[in-house]
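Note to self: keep these together.
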Amino acid sequence: MKIILIAAVAENQVIGRDNQLIWKLSSDLKRFKNLTTGHHILMGRKTFESLGKPLPNRTHLIITRNPDFQAPEGHYSFANLEEAFIFCNKLEVEKLFIIGGGEIYNQALPFCDQLEITEVHAEPEGDTFFPAIHLADWEEVERQDFPADEKNEFSYSFVTYEKRAQL
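Structure:
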């Protein structure tokens, strides 16, 4: 199973505020949809609740400490990442996308094979942060830069990182 972390991250590592996105980047949302549709997506409970409802054509895996939490039909909840990874391996999931929030990114980063990062060229106020990416562990393999426009509030870059082979 390939584990792919996907996130939009500001220059000051901010990824959200009050459990919401804090910018309007239509291109980032389209990229997210294109990459994750048809796959399993893993997130924390707060991130799931911020969606409002399950995203179409994706299986949601929700990490929660609440033993009474009930995932919607066709979706699943787990007490921790390890349980979710075991579940995915049993199902022979090809790709698992980690979609947030901050604590889930922090826990999952060591297990990821690839990072799909939208670098947002801004420094907004926020209360949720992305963990530091140690570039010694990751190789940038693709980058596309875009200016702000009528549908994208800030300039941004789509960046793909692959985990470096450990010696």
